[in-house]
Amino acid sequence: MRPGLEVRRLLVGLALLPVVAGAQGGAPCLAGLHGTWRGTGRVAGRDVVMQQEWRPALGGSFSELTMTHRLPTDTARIVFEGRGFYRATGDTVSGTWMDARGYTMTLRGSCRDQTLAMEWSGAERGATHYTRHAAGTLEVVDLVDTPGGRREFGRSRLQRVTPAVELVGRDVISTQAPEFATAVTADGRELFFNRASADRSVLTLMVSRKDASGQYTAPRTLPFSGTARDIDPFLSLDGRRLYFSSDRPRAGRPVASFSTWYVERTASGWSAPVDPGAPLNSDSADVFVSMSRDGEFVFSSTRDGARRIYTTRESNGHWVVPRLLPMVDSVGASNPMISPSGRYLVYVKDVPGRAADLLVACRSERGFGAGVPLSINSPYAEFAPAFSLDESTLYFTSERPGIVGPAPAGSGRRVTCIQCPGTPSSPPADSCFDRRFGEAHLPRVLTPPPCLSSTRPPRRSSRRDSSAAKASGNLRAARRD
Fold first, then answer.
1. d(C-alpha 419, C-alpha 408), whole Å
2. With contact defined as beta carbons under 8 Å apart, do 276 and 318 qualify?
3. How far apart are CA 69 and CA 441, in angstroms?
4. 119-173 pLDDT, tens digit each
5. For the chain, what percentages of helix, strand and coil (3-state, to nearest 5) are there?
6. Where are the alpha helices (DSSP H) in 174-294?
C-alpha cells in the first residue's frame, strides 16, 4: 500500500498473472514495439504465420527483434527466422540483421511517431516498415530493390499477444470486501493478504491455506493482527519471518505514520510483533518491504520529505543505515518489489491523468533503469506487486470492476463505483488504456524484460497454482510460461 492512500486504494482484490513485463531500451518509438506480436501475411509469394518478439538487449542499449515464419498448414515448423539489433539515437536508428539464409544486413533508418522505417543493405537491398495502429496491431511491409525498381514482396498484419487475467481465490480470498497485497510461501500452500472492513477503517492481515485438492480454505485473521492497521505482508524467502507495515504504537515514538514490523515463525506459531527501530524505521512513513535472495532489502519511505525507494541490509542482527536505491525513477515511486534474483524491480507510480500503474525496471551496473509499464495495467489502479519464489508468478492488486462492493458513504472513496458487482470486467474500448502516453497499447504484452531474457529461474514442481494463471478482483496474478 502506498503512503497517503491508506483509504482510497483499499478498494481492490488480488490478482495472478505470468511474471513478464513491458521491456526497456531504445527510443520511445522502439520501446512501443517491445512485446510479442503474432499474425498472418503473405511474404515472398506464400502465406505465412509470422511472430515477432521485440525486447531490450545488451543492458537496454539496443532493441532486439526475433522473427519467425511458419506455414498456416504446419505451424509447428519454422520455415524462416531472423534476428535484428536496433539502436536509436534521437529519431535515427541503426543496426544489424541476420537470418537463416546466412545473410547479414546493415540497417539504417528512422523511428518517428508510430512507424519504424528501416533501409537494409548487404546481400540484398530494400526496406521494411513497421507501423503500429491504434487497434493494437502492427503492420509490417517488406520492400526489395530489383533491376526494375523497388517492389513490395511482403505484407503482414500482427496483433499483440495478451494474456487473460483471472481472480485469485474467488469468493474465498477475493470477495466483495476490499482485499489487497499478498505474500505466498515457497510451496504455494499459504497465502497472506490484507482485508479491510466495510468502512475501510480496520486493516487486517489474514492467511488462507490450500486443502488437499489445492483449493484455498476460508481465511483467518493472523493472531497478532486485528487491532491496529496492519498492511502489506512480505514473507522472507526462507519463510521464517513475515514483515508488514503498521500504525501500531512504537515505544517512545508518536503514532504519526506507518512503520515496518515483523513476526518470527516459531514452533508454536507467530511471535509477538517486533519493531526493528532505527535506522530501518524513522518518524516518517516506512512501508512496503521486499528482499532478494542475497539479502538486499528495499522499501518505500518519506524520510527525506518525498516518497522514494531505499535499500539496506541486516548485518549481524543490525540494520545498515538505509540509502536511496540507485534507480532512474525513484521520486514518487512506491510499492517496491525486488525480484528474488535481484535482477529487476516492479514498483508503482501515479500516471498523470489516470490511476497508478505497475512498472518494471531492470538492473544494470549503475542501478535500476527507467521503469516501463507492465502490460497488465488497466485504466484502474494497479499496485502491491508480489512474486512467487521461482519468479514464475506475479501477484498484484487491481481496482478494475467486478468484485468489490460499494463503499459506505463518507468512506473517502474517490471514485463512485470501482469493483461494483455486476459491472463488466474489461475496460471500455475507448478507455485511456489505449491512449496512455499518447501511444497505442504501450506496452500491452507480457514480454520478459531484458533481465529475464537471458537466463530464467528454475521451475519448482510445487509452484503455486501450476495449472492456470489466476487473479482476483481484489487479488490478481500472472504466470510466466
1. 13
2. no
3. 24
4. 999 989 999 999 998 777 999 999 999 999 999 999 999 998 765 556 788 788 8
5. 5, 45, 50
6. none
